[in-house]
Design a protein that fits this description.
- With about 500 residues, this protein is α+β, with helices and mostly antiparallel strands.
- The chain is built from twelve helices and 15 strands.
- Helices cover about 50% and strands about 20% of the residues.
- The strands form four sheets. It has a five-stranded antiparallel β-sheet, with helices on one face.
- The longest helix has about 50 residues.
Length: about 500
């Protein structure tokens, strides 16, 4: 049935509904079993071949000695008479020499001219590589009328004191007895393997099951835990090979527990901080409802606006801090920033606020053009927070300076925000970066989140922040917030001399 116009057909729907293939899950048991059985199954045929070769070698040894004895017996029968070579071998002796229940025996005796003196003439010629040596017995394999043979041969160099007349003596036999013996050896070795191999496989299976049982027990212990149980897993009952994995998991659980504790503390502090502006807004709205005087109503509405502004600022800072702590999201929006122009643009945005408070807001840019790979939204939040704090705490008629510099010797990019406010005592300089921490007696509105946001973002960009006095020993001493970004591959900070 055809699809209606504008509607997807069945093939399109099937392609949309089809899920992408997920990678197959690997089994540790199967992986170990494969790596144990695969070499075993490959080595088994190799062992059979090696056994066959060894069996043939073993089977040849006793029968080769029998051939040697027959060659020596024939050599003793060679005589010389009137310069001629003779071999005295009666018919009975020939019959005894050839007597064998399983194999056929052949022999030959030839003089130096290659003439057959006694025996069988159908022997193939001896190759140059197998040339006989005088006084020693050698062996060779050849085919005679389609039958595989093995022979022993020797060369008698001299048969008398006065004349040297070499004689070749060779005795050969078929390979029936050798094959039978080799097969018996192979059967004795290979057949038990057909029983041993299944037993070995069963033992391997049992050993793997037994060896991996601690992993199963560990899985059961973890599965039986409560969802809120983040205590470390006991490693005393864990095998040595799994201990590093369990220790890493315990470290992760510890980090998760710390993160949850920080989040709980943050939520509790945020809820506490939200109560103040919300309570103020509720009180001012109720007060405005009870007032009949337009001037009082106007004053209540003004207070309500201030409370809503404080609540809005607090909520925005909470959202910014949550966004800053999301490192993955923060890393996805980074781009190359020209710091001189970027900081100048931010300082320009704060000129109206500084002018409203009669504060001279200035900017000293770097002589080098700096390029920083960073999140523009997060970095703007850092600089804006520092400028906002400087304007808030600097008295009217004073100055605030933003400075961008480069320390080429130590490969550092430096951003400073300098004010002429009351300064921060040394014992409070580390604490002001904590959430919701405010110095008592500062008499300035704020939530205590700005500097926590600043340090979080700076650390994410590989930098550090510190505080020092602007005018040490003076009253007021002023304050300098100094941010340092190292020039390294982490933040991909670059600079070019103008």
């Amino acid at each position: 049935m055809a699809a209606a116009p504008g509607e997807p057909d069945q093939d399109t729907l099937n392609s949309l509904l089809q899920q992408p293939d997920e990678p197959a899950q690997r089994s540790l048991f199967g992986e170990i079993l494969d790596w144990m059985l695969a070499p075993l199954l490959l080595l088994w045929p190799a062992s059979i071949v090696i056994t066959y070769l060894v069996a043939k070698s073993i089977a040849n040894q006793p029968f080769d000695r029998g051939l040697e004895d027959k060659v020596l017996v024939l050599a003793q029968q060679v005589r010389q008479h009137d310069g001629q070579i003779h071999i005295s071998l009666p018919t009975v002796a020939k019959d005894i020499l050839r007597a064998d229940d399983a194999d056929h025996i052949y022999f030959q005796v030839r003089n130096q001219k290659g003439e057959l003196l006694e025996g069988d003439a159908q022997f193939p010629a001896i190759s140059e590589d197998e040339k006989p040596l005088a006084g020693g017995i050698q062996f060779r394999n050849f085919s005679l009328n389609g039958t595989e043979m093995r022979s022993a041969y020797t060369l008698i160099e001299s048969v008398s004191k006065n004349n040297q007349n070499p004689v070749l003596i060779e005795v050969a036999e078929t390979l029936e007895k050798r094959g039978v013996l080799a097969n018996e050896i192979i059967k004795g070795v290979v057949l038990p393997q057909f029983v041993i191999l299944p037993v070995a496989l069963a033992l391997v299976w049992f050993a793997l099951t037994r060896g991996l049982s601690p992993v199963t027990e560990l899985q059961k212990r973890i599965h039986a835990r409560r969802p809120d149980d983040l205590s470390p897993v006991d490693t005393s009952q864990v095998p040595e090979e799994i201990t590093p994995l369990v220790e890493s998991m315990n470290e992760m659980l510890q980090r998760v527990e710390q993160s949850i504790a920080v989040q709980k503390s943050f939520i509790a502090d945020a809820a506490h901080q939200m109560k103040t502006p919300l309570a103020g807004m509720r009180m001012q709205s109720e007060l405005a409802l009870r007032q009949d005087d337009p001037e009082e109503i106007r004053r209540s509405l003004q207070q309500l606006a201030k409370s809503s502004e404080a609540a809005t600022r607090l909520i925005n800072q909470l959202l910014t801090l949550a966004k800053a702590e999301n490192r993955e999201a923060a890393g996805q929006i980074r781009e190359s920033l020209q710091l001189n122009d970027f900081v100048l643009d931010i300082v320009s945005d704060w000129l109206p606020a500084a002018s409203q408070k009669n504060i001279d807001l200035g900017y000293e840019q770097c002589d080098s053009q700096l390029t920083l790979f960073a999140s523009p939204v997060m970095l703007r939040e850092v600089i804006s927070n520092l400028i906002d704090n400087a304007i808030r705490y600097t008295p009217s008629g004073r100055s605030v300076t933003v400075r961008l510099d480069l320390d080429s010797q130590q490969a550092l990019a430096i951003l400073e925000v300098e004010d002429e406010g009351p300064g921060i005592p040394e014992e409070h300089r580390e604490k002001v970066f904590q959430r919701f921490y405010r110095i008592l007696g500062s008499n300035t509105q704020g939530s205590g989140l700005g500097l926590a946001i600043v340090r979080e973002i700076v650390q994410q960009h590989g930098g550090s922040i510190s505080i020092r006095d602007h005018h040490p020993g003076a009253t007021p001493p002023g304050c300098i917030f100094r941010i340092v970004f190292p020039i390294n591959p982490f933040n991909e900070l670059q600079y070019d001399e103008r």
